Amino acid sequence: xxxxIEQLKPLFRYIRESLSSYLLGGLLLAxxxxxxxxxxxxxxxxxxxxxxxxxxxxxxxxYGMTIIVVALLHGIIRIFSRTTLLHNARRIEFKIxxxxxxxxxxxxxxYFNKERTGDLISRFSNDLTNVRMLLGFGVLNLINTAIIYTxxxxxxxxxxxxxxxxxxxxxxxxxxxxxxxxxxxxxxxKRAQEELAALTSTVEENISAAAVIKAYCREEHSxxxxxxxxxxxxxxxxxxxxxxxxMIPVMAAxxxxxxxxxxxxxxxxxxxxxxTLGDFVAFSGYLTMLIWPTIIMGWILNLVQRGAASMxxxxxxxxxxxxxxxxxxxxxxxxxxxxIVLKNLCFSFGSRQILKNISLSIPAGSRLGIVGSIGxxxxxxxxxxxxxxxxxxxxxxxxxxxxxxxxxxxxRDATGYVPQESFLFSRSIAENIAFGLIGPDIDAVRRVSxxxxxxxxxERFPDGYDSMVGERGITLSGxxxxxxxxxxxxxxxxxxxxxxxxxxxxxxxxxxxxLSSLRGYYGDRTVIIISHRLxxxxxxxxxxxxxxxxxxxxxxxNELLALKGRYAALHREQELRFEIGEM
Length: 583
Description:
Helices cover 64% and strands 10% of the residues. By secondary structure, the chain is α/β, with parallel strands linked by helices. The protein has 2 domains: 2-318, Up-down Bundle (ABC transporter transmembrane region fold), CATH 1.20.1560; 336-414 and 497-506 and 528-583, P-loop containing nucleotide triphosphate hydrolases (Rossmann fold). It has a 6-stranded mixed sheet, sandwiched between helices. A 4-stranded antiparallel sheet has the order 2-1-4-5, covered by helices on one side. Helix 1 packs across helix 10 and helix 3 (60-106) runs antiparallel to helix 5 (117-159). It is elongated and about 120 Å long.
């Protein structure tokens, strides 16, 4: 129980912010419950007015009309009480969703590298729904149950304390059973949410990889895999249903046993004249009113367990800390020129060291080429330079300033980054290229498209730059997506341009055309190019060859050829392939 309360603590802030709405809803709910509690008492007086017409000042018809008016009032106020509380839960859900989304955008790549997209989507939908149900229906029924229980027991004691004691004898046993069940319910609820996240991830992954699944004829395997994950999710929910199925009969049996005691004991007291028939009817009415709150208590506990389990998953996002953060007092120089110095740069993923003691100077306006085997750390190196990954203090300097002291916004604005895998949004070509700009600028879009050799391709589309590219740019070829990504980086007019293998999906002729256009664009910008094709690195001032996270060769194109090392061997291999027509 303490663990559940700990997980739900972040919700208290939202409740405090909406306290006035909850108080209004609670007041309306109290009036609603008061009307419901008044009806059995009016029924008692109506029966007594029939038995003793002269003892009471009102006729049975008057009491009957009063009951009708109270019932109508009860129904009207009930509508407002429910809408007030349920709408409040919706508003809190909206606030949490906004905070979750803002938090995700603040987190760095190291967080997303270990999280599944489907799991994150599941938290935004299913987990938030469970929290909303807890803050809406859960709070509503909790307040209603507390009011009904307290008032009913007071009125029952007023009618006959001894009969109240007998009628409520089964309740302590019910509380003990529910307490034991609730702990298991929390564990099973959290497990069910994790299985739902796995199910969502499986669906998202299979839909995204539909072309691959069809190409390899893995449809049947994917269906079986989905069925396996779906079965686990169903079994998790069935375990919860069995637990809930046990809880509700326990609640119902408690109320039924109390009613049986009232019939046996209360009936004898009516016959002996200890209580009147009206008292007996009113007492039975109040006991009946306790049955539904008792039954609903099991549902409330289920909501609490699911809400706590879901909130624990949401807390993992809300409490996550980015390793790449804006410094407290960021340096904001007039401009970033792009002079980059690496000093004994090291980087690790967990226990695996990716980069080891990288020391390098990249003067402003120069061009650095990076080549190496797969997994050598090339992409990691450029992500550290753009602070997409966290770097140790004193390991990377830009214009003489420690990169960890520079304003993140200023550094990112001064850096144009083309990732290895080009990602396009489900928008038009122009919107994708102008993504880094505050407002649309079609002239700039056309200009950088020419630099990226994309303009001729775009002219062939029916809607030109207004053509929609589909999800992840599915309507474009791999080369077109890469060139669109290059244009998106160029339009920012960055001081530092980082190209992570940007020409892998284009042919040799298009590559030469793009390189020729980019040479006129480079100017005094600092350019870092990663490429497996050495033809893209020929004009670089310095080229480094990475192997197992260390620099094993360094120099210009001609110097590395003269060295006759790994770079020269790779150059000979690529020339041979070109000659026999493989490239």
